[in-house]
């Protein structure tokens, strides 16, 4: 039977050549209207795209023969993965094909910003000269702050070190060993903001990274800081850039990515500011990167169509697990527990041990993958899934260990995670109580019982009268309702742990009001919503 693949969005032509060598027919349609795409997609077993095509449930409903969606690149924000998974369609990407190109583009932006290259090129081309106006700054001996020390952040660090820059990084999910190896000092975010002459971000856009730089943090920034964003639009609050420049806090900004691409009319107005330089999402636009991702995705898809292997797949284990009713609840439990662990673990932890009891021992491998998926999905750019989570964890230098325990005195089927580094450890256990009912049953040796859902406030307190009243009245004053709560203690009058499910998300000020209460310590806020 002949196999047909549709290549969309200016995917490099080498993609078609690789398919041809594998006897797979490829049609190249760089520009196609959505209506026509809906009419023809039904005859293809696979499609390849970049960021120009959105694959949603509606488009998938026309794709009756589709087996694979391949992204020539990293970001899969334009693909509805849950919809593809429930239709049994594999989604694949090529997470590292454009790392070097994007790192090089970032370094180019840092130098262009320091030396006003784009602005001065414009001036000369329009018949001007103005040498005085374009006085620049050396990057040598200046401090570069890197937020996100993953694949691209690491390559940027290695290159800018050669320019003589001092390097700081903030990344709670990388290890001290990795930072040390590449000559970077790992610091807290506020410290980095206050010490950096240049700031470059290399994280995904998440709830935590969105608007990381805005007028709200103006007083934390080193005056005269220069900002670079070649990651995702929205990490710097776009509408605050001009005010930050006008106040003299930010000396300039270099942007490759935007919240809306192409930018809206208002955003184009912002980009006209002479201290802002910009490129149209060119990080990965080199012949080499496009060729690499095109060859990689064509080989991956060919292998998968021939059932040889599923490298680069983002959802293949999820597809096979969709039909296994026995393991499904434990996979959900493990993923939720991973999410919680990722939010309470000590910064830069690198030791993770997972202990399984009862039925969980039968599926320990996939449950570890699910825990890692839950943990990493909050920090890693490309969609983390059951297939690639372990790879990313090991790539980051995490040390993983798994043990199976024959029984537990209280629970038949239990998962326990211990995580930390040599100085600080956290331990947390959870179990399935019924359909969709997953509960934490122990934290750091304190027995509690709390459903894994919603927004959770957790803290330690002295076991004495009035502690709960103090917290609940502080919450009530801020109109925050408590939905459920659980208490655990070491013994009468000693240390206790309290976990409450609150009815809405808490902001930093609201959390501060709990930190400040006498006798309350170790406050953690966990969002599972
Ligand atoms: N401009 C372009 O054309 C282009 C090309 C490729 C990738 N990208 C983007 O670049 C970014 C980085 O890609 P990558 O391949 O290096 O990803 P990566 O997953 O290898 O690295 C991301 C890093 O960010 C860290 N991180 C996550 N949340 C954080 C937070 N709140 N604070 C600090 N650090 C945090 C992670 O721990 C990880 O180390 C992504 O947003 C990706 O989509 C852009
Ligand atoms: O140019 C592209 O295809 C997008 C590059 C990049 O943002 C990615 O997600 O891989």
UniProtKB/TrEMBL annotation:
Pathway assigned in UniProt:
Amino-acid biosynthesis; L-serine biosynthesis; L-serine from 3-phospho-D-glycerate: step 1/3
E.C. numbers:
1.1.1.95
Q: Does the keyword Nuclease apply?
A: no
Q: Which domain of life is it from?
A: Bacteria
* Family annotation (Pfam families): 2-Hacid_dh (PF00389), 2-Hacid_dh_C (PF02826), ACT (PF01842), PGDH_inter (PF19304)
Q: Which GO terms describe its molecular function?
A: phosphoglycerate dehydrogenase activity
Q: Which InterPro entries match?
A: ACT-like_dom_sf (IPR045865), ACT_dom (IPR002912), ASB_dom_sf (IPR029009), D-2-hydroxyacid_DH (IPR050857), D-isomer_2_OHA_DH_cat_dom (IPR006139), D-isomer_DH_CS (IPR029753), D-isomer_DH_CS1 (IPR029752), D-isomer_DH_NAD-bd (IPR006140)
Role description: Catalyzes the reversible oxidation of 3-phospho-D-glycerate to 3-phosphonooxypyruvate, the first step of the phosphorylated L-serine biosynthesis pathway. Also catalyzes the reversible oxidation of 2-hydroxyglutarate to 2-oxoglutarate.
Identification of the protein by name = D-3-phosphoglycerate dehydrogenase
Q: Which organism is it from?
A: Rhodohalobacter sulfatireducens
Instruction: Give the lineage.
Output: Bacteria, Pseudomonadati, Balneolota, Balneolia, Balneolales
């Amino acid at each position: 039977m002949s196999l047909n693949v549709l290549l969309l969005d200016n995917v490099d032509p080498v993609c078609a050549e690789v398919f041809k060598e594998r006897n797979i027919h490829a049609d190249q349609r760089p520009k196609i209207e959505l209506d026509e795409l809906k009419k023809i997609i039904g005859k293809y077993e696979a499609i390849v795209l970049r960021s120009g095509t959105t694959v949603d449930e509606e488009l998938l409903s026309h794709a009756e023969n589709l087996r694979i969606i391949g992204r020539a690149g990293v970001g899969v924000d334009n693909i509805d993965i849950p919809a593809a998974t429930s239709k049994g369609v594999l989604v694949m990407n090529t997470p590292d094909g454009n790392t070097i190109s994007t790192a090089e583009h970032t370094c180019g932006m840092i130098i262009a910003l320091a030396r006003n290259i784009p602005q001065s090129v414009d001036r000369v081309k329009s018949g001007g000269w103005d040498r005085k106006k374009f006085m620049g700054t050396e990057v040598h001996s200046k401090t570069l702050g890197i937020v996100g020390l993953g694949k691209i952040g690491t390559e940027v660090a290695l290159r800018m070190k050669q320019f003589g820059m001092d390097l700081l990084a903030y990344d709670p999910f990388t290890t001290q060993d990795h930072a040390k190896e590449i000559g970077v000092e790992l610091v807290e975010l506020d410290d980095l903001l206050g010490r950096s002459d240049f700031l470059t971000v290399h994280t995904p856009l998440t709830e935590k990274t969105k608007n990381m730089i805005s007028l709200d943090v103006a007083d934390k920034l080193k005056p005269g800081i220069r900002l670079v964003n070649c990651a995702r639009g929205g990490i710097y609050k776009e509408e605050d850039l001009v005010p930050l420049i006008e106040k003299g806090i930010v000396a300039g900004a270099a942007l490759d990515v935007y919240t809306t691409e192409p930018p809206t009319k208002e955003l184009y107005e912002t980009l006209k500011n002479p201290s802002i330089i910009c490129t149209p999402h060119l990080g990965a636009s080199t012949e080499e990167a496009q060729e690499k991702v095109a060859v990689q995705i064509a080989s991956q898809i060919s292998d998968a169509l021939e059932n040889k292997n599923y490298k680069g797949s983002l959802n293949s284990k999820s597809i096979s697990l969709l039909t296994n009713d026995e393991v499904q609840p434990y996979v959900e439990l493990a993923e939720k527990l991973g999410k919680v662990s990722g939010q309470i673990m000590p910064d830069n932890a690198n030791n993770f041990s997972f202990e399984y009891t009862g039925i969980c021992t039968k599926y320990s491998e996939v449950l570890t993958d699910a825990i890692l998926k839950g943990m990493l999905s909050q920090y890693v750019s490309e969609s983390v899934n059951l297939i690639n989570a372990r790879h990313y964890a090991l790539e980051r230098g995490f040390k993983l260990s798994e043990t199976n325990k024959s029984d537990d005195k209280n629970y038949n089927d239990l998962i326990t995670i211990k995580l930390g580094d040599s100085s600080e450890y956290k331990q947390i256990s959870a179990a399935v109580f019924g359909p969709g009912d997953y509960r934490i049953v122990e934290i750091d040796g304190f027995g509690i019982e709390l459903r894994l859902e919603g927004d959770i406030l957790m803290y330690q307190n002295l076991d004495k009268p009035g502690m709960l009243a103090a917290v609940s009245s502080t919450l009530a004053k801020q109109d925050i309702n408590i939905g459920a709560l659980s208490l655990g203690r070491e013994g009468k009058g000693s240390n206790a742990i309290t976990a409450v499910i609150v009815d809405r998300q808490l902001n930093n000020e609201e959390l501060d009001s709990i930190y400040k209460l006498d006798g309350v310590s170790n406050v953690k806020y966990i969002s599972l919503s």
